[in-house]
UniProtKB/TrEMBL annotation:
The keyword Ribosomal protein does not apply. Residues 140-214 form the Cation-transporting P-type ATPase N-terminal domain. InterPro entries: ATPase_P-typ_cation-transptr_C (IPR006068), ATPase_P-typ_cation-transptr_N (IPR004014), ATPase_P-typ_cyto_dom_N (IPR023299), ATPase_P-typ_P_site (IPR018303), ATPase_P-typ_TM_dom_sf (IPR023298), ATPase_P-typ_transduc_dom_A_sf (IPR008250), ATPase_P-type_domA (IPR059000), Ca_ATPase_N_dom (IPR024750). The lineage of its organism: Eukaryota, Viridiplantae, Streptophyta, Embryophyta, Tracheophyta. The chain crosses the membrane at residues 189-214, 226-245, 376-400, 430-456, 999-1020, 1032-1053. Residues 1-12 have a biased composition (Polar residues). This is Calcium-transporting ATPase. Its EC number is 7.2.2.10. GO terms for cellular component: endomembrane system; plasma membrane. It comes from Rhamnella rubrinervis. It is found in: Endomembrane system; Membrane.
Amino acid sequence: MSNCKGSPNSRPNDLEAGSSRSGDYDDDDVCSSSPFNILSTKRASIERLRRWRQAALVLNASRRFRYTLDLKKEEEKRQIVRKIRAHAQAIRAAYLFKAAGDQANGNAKPPPTADGGDFAIGQYQLASMTREHHFPTLQQYGGVKGIADLLKTNLDKGINGGDDDLLKRKNAFGSNTYPRKKGRSFWMFLWEAWQDLTLIILMVAAVASLALGIKTEGIKEGWYDGGSIAFAVILVIVVTAISDYRQSLQFQNLNEEKRNIRLEVIRGGRRVEVSIYDIVVGDVIPLNIGDQVPADGILISGHSLAIDESSMTGESKIVHKDSKEPFLMSGCKVADGRGTMLVTSVGINTEWGLLMASISEDTGEETPLQVRLNGVATFIGMVGLTVAFAVLVVLLVRYFTGHTKDPDGTRQFIAGQTKLSDAIDGAIKIVTVAVTIVVVAVPEGLPLAVTLTLAYSMRKMMADKALVRRLSACETMGSATTICSDKTGTLTLNQMTVVEAYVGGKKIDPADNKSELSSSLSSLLKAGIAQNSNGGVFVSETGEVEVSGSPTEKAILNWGLKLGMNYEAIRSESSILHVFPFSSEKKRGGVAIKLPDSEVHVHWKGAAEIVLASCTGFIDTNNGITVMDEDKALFFKKAIEDMAARSLRCVAIAYRSYELDKIPTDEEQLDQWALPEDDLVLLAIVGIKDPCRPGLGDALRLCQIAGVKVRMVTGDNLQTAKAIALECGILGSDAEATEPNLIEGKAFRALSNTEREQIADQISVMGRSSPNDKLLLVQALRKTGHVVAVTGDGTNDAPALHEADIGLAMGIQGTEVAKESSDIIILDDNFASVVKVVRWGRSVYANIQKFIQFQLTVNVAALIINVVAAVSSGDVPLNAVQLLWVNLIMDTLGALALATEPPTDHLMHRPPVGRREPLITNIMWRNLLVQAFYQVTVLLILNFRGRSLLNLEHDAKNHANKVKNTLIFNAFVLCQIFNEFNARKPDEYNIFKGITKNYLFMGIVAITLVLQIIIIEFLGKFTTTVKLSWKQWLISAIIGFISWPLAVVGKLLPVPKTPISQYVTGMFRR
């Protein structure tokens, strides 16, 4: 429970929502006095995580901390990684030193030969060459072309890719997998469930009771007391282990999904998407900025290719790759440029595979809610321990002073007369009751309920196209107050087509009307489209055309094909000198090509107004280059504005000639050469239509109702962004489309930090934004108290994704770098899926609160009933076995029933969950106290007046007491079953709404009821109960049933808006 005040602009207290703002930016700076108040585990230090572990009251550490980060293992993992890196570098250095010596002495050896098989080179030769980065060996094999020939690979078309070919390669060189450490078996979970201190004490007590019982009463009757406790403990352990094991399997499946990267390879001349596990030696793989290098290999060709090798070397140094430095290591990231690689080693034969096989992937990670629940459990546990100790003292004093009597009035202990074995047996029974009170009082399963609900939610979210990478993000999403979303592919369909075109200084209609193009303009335009593209065109033997690449690239390539472009012919008749990959900072990309006549053309493509600003001329319909005068520049600007106003993405294509002798000939200098971007000649401006996603308006309206503001942050033209925002409903009207609601990235960037924070809340649309602008917006929003979710797909989005409270990467268009920086991956790139994640985030919080309310009601009622009875009469109506059964209902079965409630639309009609709001809200306190007061009152009346009320005065005292205690136990359990329904809807009158959809809830309630009937009717010897008549069953059922109308009456009671915890804190401060 939090002792911190909410932010000044917090909303009225709400059970499943809370305030609209968290008011936190530096998450651990505020409220750090409580070790359990960690608002974001995403940035928490190791010391901060260690603090809450040390402060928690824990009975079974191995189980409680199972799904938290193992701090010891984390340190061990880092040490192993350091050792393997150092070892690999030492071997490489020694090998290079030896090779240099051999070369100096003229002892250079011929390349080693293969060890047989289908290929002329073996795995050992490939792995040693690649791992040691030994360039002389590569040269001896004839360079990358020689290696490709040995591997039967065509460098342009890749491998054949047939099933037989793939099988041969896997047999010869291995598959791209590494041996993983097996997950824990069921027996491990069973062993961990045994580690609970209270259960161990109960087992010891059960064994002692068993021995004494058999000794005094014989084996036939004497084993019941001890045996029943032992059986109850074993049942608790087995059920706990089964529940934990099922959760573990769910997490394992989700982790498999996280690791399964999809990527493009070239096989049989076409680009196909495969799993990273299906890559084989000999594959040709295109690499683009943000990709992960999926295996060890050699660079075939590349342009400005820069690799971040920090994951392998430990040094955050970007390494440029070219023909002199061609070796690529698996697990590294493409930081810049593009290229193609030939795979030479996969799986365990790579350093990355060796590294991954050597470390156990500890997926543990605590969530803020889990940490807070540990705080709640610790507080309740302390109260429970105090109460249990008081009961133990009272019962022992009463027993040994002779005040504890049997139902017939006989004193159980008489000093000097009672046998030692009887005295020990009596003391053991008292200790057993006290320890069982601890079992019930310390809610060990409370923090684990978070894991249960998260495991359930994550599995269901996969069906809703969201893959959770960080557990904490699942619940943090419920607190999100704003979502900064990309436009292309998230708010729109990402299905682009060129619908408008300006070529030759005029608009051509239709856009693919090639008859209006002159021959010179047509050939230049087609060359610019084919050469300056990161996509590709594959024509099958049947003549079927396949276009690959990003949606924008595909749209322009398809337009080029309609204009008569022969992609392969154009690409083959000229050679690429240098490439400037598309940059989200510069909003354009270019390529320098050398024509057969040695003439050099530099082609540019990018944001229309930016490319247009660099143009000094355009090609007219007569093939002549006309100077771009002011009128023509205004004509093109007006065309761009008109297209943007109709929500078209505007792209300009331009070129210029360049002198060959001015281009650097040295490879290193050429890599650093900046393509000339001035004096361009405009070839075309195209308008690309990308329609809004169906149902986007409904999703955005749902966000508005839920108190979550959606902001569009796009690299597109401000006018295009405005048109899309008006179309989908982010902007309500033209009147809203003014600064600062609508702002350009460079205008926001130019403001001071303070000014940015002042206007950040008002921004709805940011156009022409760079990734850095997105980062600045996120920082400004977080500083003003927002909980920020951000979508991103590019490598440059990684800082914003990391900085945000929840980073959402796109699964289809997102790069590996973006995905690794994110917390959740949206598998279908659809904004509607983001809204579903918000729903699930709120559901996690709501389900935990339902479980807390249910569990605390049981805790309070069981404790008070036993304490009052123990102090007043020296006897407890609920014995050890009964309390263990109640604990099973409350902890494991209750968590399963309530923590797996599916989300409802009701959750989205509330403000976001406040991260500083107390876990136990005033509504929960009201519901809890009403039910607990009712249960305690009714059951204590039965305890003290039960014999007369149940007409048992004429029965034997011992039998009457057993009937009374059985009825109390039965009524208590039925109260919990009925109250489980109440807990489903803490602030709604209709507690049955949607109940038929939750089969697990209905199943658990049915199982609990059936087991209760079996316990009462058939297992009396074990639970010290007797069979009840149908009238007594009816009385029990009526007592339980009354909790339903009582809950309705309770909900009519008003609750104060200020949390009770603040009143309590205020009283202590005075």
